[in-house]
Every structure is written in structure tokens, then in C-alpha cells.
Amino acid sequence: MTNASRQTIEAMQALAGQDLEEAGNAQIRGEFAEDALDPAGEARHVAELLDTIVAQFMRDRASAAKALRAATAPAVPLQRPTIETMRALVRAAFDTEPQLAAAFRDGKAHADADVQSLYDDLVALGKICSSRP
């Protein structure tokens, strides 16, 4: 949301609040009756409209975040080394920085996909140089 749109919304809120403060309940009910409007129905309509606006804002924000993430995501190495080499590189990274191994399941057999994913993560973090064979 831009600064100008935020200021516009704040100004509208201030005016609406001032208008409500100046008008009493009887006057507001009178205006609804004069226009043949149901106050509960109008309140529901405003709530639905706000829900729609907020939902659209959230979708737009999520879409923008997704686009930014896709544009800035580090590329997965196109050519990975063999699985044995990846296992050795991951082990070497764990030996060099033991805290890296904290999140990895210790003492279990790891599927090739797990090792490949971990390798990609460590390359993205700069803990393994992807140019190694």
C-alpha cells in the first residue's frame, strides 16, 4: 500500500468517524427509514464488501510475494554430482560445521531424494561449492 493511499484511507476514516460522532442514533435510524433501508442488511453488506476487499488484498499480496520469491530464489544446480559424491560433500559439510547436521535425521538411512534436497540447500547456503565434482 502506498503512502498516498494510506493517507487517503486515514482521511476517509477520520471523516466517517467525525460524521458518526456528529449524528446521533436517532438521526441515523431516521436516515435508514427515510431511504427504506434495513440497518442489519446494510451492515451485512458493508461487512461482505470489506471481506471481499481484504481477501483481494491478501491474494494480491500473496501473489506478489510468490512472484518475488520465484524471481529471487537461488537456482538449483542443473548438474549435480553423483549421489555418492553428494553424500560425501554433505558429510564433509557436516564435519566442517556440525551445527548444520542438527536438522538432519541422524542415524537413519537417507533416501537419495533427501540427500539431493539437502545438497541443494547446502549449495544455496554457500556451505558446499557447486563447482566441485
Structural notes for this entry:
It is a single chain. The protein is an all-alpha fold and 133 residues long. It has two domains: 3-72, no CATH class; 83-124, no CATH class. Helix content is 68%, strand content 0%. The protein contains five helices and no strands. The protein has helices at residues 3-22, 25-34, 39-72, 83-96, 112-124. Helix 4 (83-96) packs across helix 5 (112-124). The radius of gyration is 29 Å and the shape is rod-shaped. It starts with a helix and ends in a 9-residue tail after the last helix.
The largest pleated sheet is described as:
none
Low-confidence stretches: none
Radius of gyration: 29 Å
Helix content: 55-70%
Number of helices: 5
Query: Helices and strands: which structural class?
Result: mainly alpha
DSSP E strands, number: 0
Oligomer: single chain
Indicate the overall shape: rod-shaped
Topology of this protein?
Blueprint: H1 3-22, H2 25-34, H3 39-72, H4 83-96, H5 112-124
Helix pairs in contact: 4-5
Quick structural overview:
The protein folds into 2 domains: 3-72, no CATH class; 83-124, no CATH class. It has helices at 3-22, 25-34, 39-72, 83-96, 112-124.
